[in-house]
């Protein structure tokens, strides 16, 4: 039965999603391996459904580390007596590590298998979430916060790279469904962290307990995925060179810079939107709800934007519009009338979700084959997240220097304008070559 199931999956593995499907943004990072990795070994349709559930649940844990910390940032800063530089580092390091560890994921997968690497990443993520609130002798929370946050960033980087490929090759006949569920789970994880962390803090009276809570769902997924990962055969793979050298392509660099600029705004939403709202006088619970609403609207944008982008002859118009929506929504959330803050956050959410989705869709629309798409994806994640973390860094530094977030509002107007310019150039109907 196992052989029949996996043979059928392998036969359909070559099926590519339509560009209009949500799964069109799923890239297999292991496509340059020999032999090409086959689907995850399962023994029945029920086990295949169980695997799909596990992959979606992994996605549901990949953004809580960002949004949960920002939801109680004022409390953590005050009660743990964090210096200003530590706040900036804690909001910047995890995003930087997404870019640093992204190239390592295919290397580890070749040696241990993607499933085992995902299992290890979930173990590291769980350990990092448990470590973050620990108070070490001194007493001091800072060392554990730094180490736990860094561990979470490294683990999420591995999952970001390998999880889309598993979704794509294990469910070639359900790419639209699984791609949509995977995308929704990623956004939902950020919304859950933003919406529930502050109520957990008010119920317990301890920010440490509010942060520790998020280790529980990660540990549950770790246990659920354990039998799936351990029963996979160990097969040694070799790296092969194929596809275009994206590092020498002007189109690839335009798409990558577009990715950098959207990442600067995207992760700044997770790290700073709640503190921005609270500094403007919004209470913690309401700020969490506003951020959650913003992220829920990101889900809508991320689901519909790829299909809309693929219908155009080129993507110059949609790239420019969503970039300006995002920059404008972020700036208005900082210095627009507070009575309309839900409107500004909604504009930001729709713009940011659409912007992230169309930036990732460029991978498929600007490449002619899976090998080049994988190379472009690796370039975008490494450079995009690595340089994209400077957004959270600059917001923190501007706040420290000026004592307010007003300068950050100007920053996001500039970043949104630059994203519009590079999105226009990346949206031209050309291919990486």
Automatic annotation (TrEMBL):
Domain of life where this protein originates: Bacteria
Keywords: Membrane, Transmembrane, Transmembrane helix
InterPro entries membership: MFS, MFS_Cyanate_Porter, MFS_trans_sf
Transmembrane segments: 48-73, 85-105, 117-134, 140-163, 175-198, 210-230, 251-273, 285-305, 317-335, 341-365, 377-398, 404-424
Signal peptide annotation: none
Chain segments carrying region Disordered: 1-32
Entry-linked Pfam families: MFS_1 (PF07690)
Protein name as annotated: MFS transporter
Naturally occurring in which organism (per UniProt): Pseudarthrobacter scleromae
């Amino acid at each position: 039965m196992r052989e029949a199931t996996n043979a059928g999956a392998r036969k359909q593995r070559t099926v590519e999603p339509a560009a209009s499907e949500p799964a069109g943004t799923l890239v297999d990072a292991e496509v340059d391996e020999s032999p090409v990795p086959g689907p995850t070994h399962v023994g029945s349709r029920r086990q295949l459904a169980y695997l799909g559930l596990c992959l979606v649940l992994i996605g549901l844990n990949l953004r809580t580390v960002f949004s949960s910390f920002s939801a109680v940032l004022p409390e953590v800063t005050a009660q743990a007596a964090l210096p200003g530089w530590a706040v900036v580092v804690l909001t910047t390091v995890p995003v930087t590590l997404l870019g640093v560890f992204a190239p390592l994921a295919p290397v580890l997968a070749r040696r241990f298998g993607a499933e085992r690497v995902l299992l290890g990443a979930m173990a590291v993520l769980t350990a990092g979430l448990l470590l973050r609130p620990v108070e070490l002798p001194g007493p001091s929370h800072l060392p554990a916060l730094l180490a736990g946050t860094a561990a979470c960033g490294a683990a999420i980087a591995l999952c970001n790279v390998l999880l889309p490929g598993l979704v794509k090759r294990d469910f070639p006949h359900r790419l639209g469904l699984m791609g949509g569920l995977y995308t929704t789970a990623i956004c939902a994880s950020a919304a859950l962290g933003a919406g529930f962390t502050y109520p957990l803090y008010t119920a317990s009276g301890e920010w440490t307990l509010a942060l520790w809570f998020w280790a529980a769902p990660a540990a549950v997924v770790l246990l659920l995925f354990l039998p799936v990962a351990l029963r996979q055969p160990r097969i040694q793979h070799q790296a092969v060179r194929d596809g275009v050298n994206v590092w020498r392509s002007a189109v690839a660099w335009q798409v990558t810079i577009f990715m950098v600029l959207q990442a600067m705004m995207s992760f700044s939403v997770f790290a700073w939107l709640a503190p921005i709202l609270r500094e403007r006088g919004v209470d913690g619970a309401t700020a969490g709800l506003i951020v959650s609403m913003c992220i829920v609207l990101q889900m809508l944008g991320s689901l519909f934007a790829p299909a809309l982008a693929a219908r155009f002859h080129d993507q110059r118009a949609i790239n420019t519009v969503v970039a300006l929506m995002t920059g404008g929504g972020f700036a208005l959330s900082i210095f627009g009338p507070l009575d309309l803050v839900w409107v500004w956050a909604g504009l930001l959410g729709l713009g940011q979700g659409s912007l992230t989705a169309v930036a990732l869709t460029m991978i498929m629309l600007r490449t002619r084959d899976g090998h080049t798409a994988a190379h472009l994806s690796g370039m975008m994640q490494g450079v995009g997240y690595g340089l994209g973390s400077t957004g959270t860094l600059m917001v923190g530094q501007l706040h420290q220097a000026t004592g307010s977030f007003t300068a950050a509002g100007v920053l996001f107007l500039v970043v949104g304008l630059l994203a519009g310019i590079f999105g226009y150039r990346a949206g031209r109907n050309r291919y990486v070559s």
